[in-house]
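Take a careful look at the sequence and tokenised backbone pasted below. I need to know what the token row says about the fold.
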Amino acid sequence: MKVCIVILFFSTFLCNGQNTLSFSENGTSPKASLQDVAWMEGHWKGEAFGGVTEEIWSPPLGGSMMFVFKLVSDGKVNFYEVGHIQQTGETLVLQLKHFHGNLKGWEEKDDTVDFKLVKVEGDRVFFDGFTFEKISDDEVNLYVVISQDNKTEKEVKFNYKRM
């Protein structure tokens, strides 16, 4: 009976498509370089949150890859993100800031939302609650854990095609 419950639990977990990992509180980030995510360079477009999403990533330069993101709903910019993946010592960190459509910031002036690197595995790069997945040279998926009502967390998939 216990075996059936365990199998049911893991099959449910795998079928739900959990694509993000969490950073262990006492963990350390693995060695990685910007070459592990250089395939993100380019102009990407997709759909999410009932609108059109767009991301533009620069090539690695100066120890980082910068990006901009925007969500357009009902013909208007809903919000932007500006950020980078930065080489920090022998690992990577993803940092970003959010802005309303009028460029008023969400976070305090000097605050960023930071995602520590958890693992690099094949064509997937796992940050804390944020995963990049290369499907092909012209398609990528991003998976992000988003808090709802400051209580429940939901994994959201962004599928992008190269522009």
Observations:
- The two ends are 51 Å apart (CA to CA).
- Residues 1-16 have pLDDT under 50 and may be disordered.
